[in-house]
Structure formats: C-alpha cells, structure tokens
Amino acid sequence: MRPDSVTLAAVLCAYSYSGLVNDCLKLFESIEAEYNIVPSLEHYCCVLDMLGRVGRVSEAYDFVERFGENGNYLKVWGSLLGSCRTHGEFRLAKVVASKLVEMGLVNKNAGYHALLSNIYAD
C-alpha cells in the first residue's frame, strides 16, 4: 500500500513537530520521485513551518523562493514573516513584508499589520 498526498502531509507534519528536520526534508524531496505525487501547498507549508520553527529562517526563505509564483499565498509568506520575528531576522522580515505588500496580500489580513508593527517596534 502506497501513501497518498494526505498521508504524506501528515507524516511531514509529524516530522516537523518532532524536530526531525533532516527526515522531513528527505521525505519532501522524495515525494515526486518516489511516490509520483506532485507536492501540494500543504506539503510546502509543513516544510516551511518546520524550517521556521527550528530557526533556519533564511533556508525557509530560500525554500519559499523556489516555489516561484506557486508560493504566492498569504499563509506561506505570513508564516515566514512570523518566523522572522520569532528568531530576530529583522532584515529578512523587511524583505518578506515587502513581498506581502507587493502581492497585495497584507491588506487581506489585519493580523499581519500587527505583526509588521511589532517587528518595527523591536
């Protein structure tokens, strides 16, 4: 029995919350080749969240950049912005905030205005 997309997302999240960074990255990289499943936004978000949670924020940014246009979602960039604040990556936070503004996404969620305000206050 082969796992489906939902099962793989659940395993990625489990690795993420368990702090198994390398296992999570290895599984993500094998999703398409080994399981013949195109990674979805949920798969990307699990990896992004994990990288941000463990403090590998610039690696998370590079990961998001690899998405290209497919990564232009509020929750992707918003999660990255939150990680920037948590780990004191203020220069990168400004880049991420600019991306949110450029995409017009920041106006769709007042919470990101508050987060941006808190980042500038720090």
Q: Summary?
A:
With 122 residues, the protein is an all-alpha fold. It has seven helices and no strands.
Overview features:
single chain, 122 residues, mainly alpha, 7 helices, elongated
Describe the structure in your own words.
Helix content is 75%, strand content 0%. It is built from 7 helices and no strands. It has helices at residues 5-18, 21-35, 41-53, 57-67, 74-86, 90-103, 110-121. The N and C termini lie far apart (50 Å).
List the helices and strands and how they pair.
Layout: H1 5-18, H2 21-35, H3 41-53, H4 57-67, H5 74-86, H6 90-103, H7 110-121
Count of distinct strands = 0
Radius of gyration: 15 Å
Mean pLDDT across all residues, rounded?
88
Annotation field: number of helices: 7
- Helix/strand order: HHHHHHH
Instruction: Give the biggest sheet.
Output: none
The helicity comes to over 70%
Beginning-to-end CA distance, first to last residue: 50 Å
Portion in beta strands = under 5%
Write down the overall geometry: elongated
Unreliable runs, pLDDT <50, ≥5 residues?
none
Structural class, from helix and strand content?
A: mainly alpha
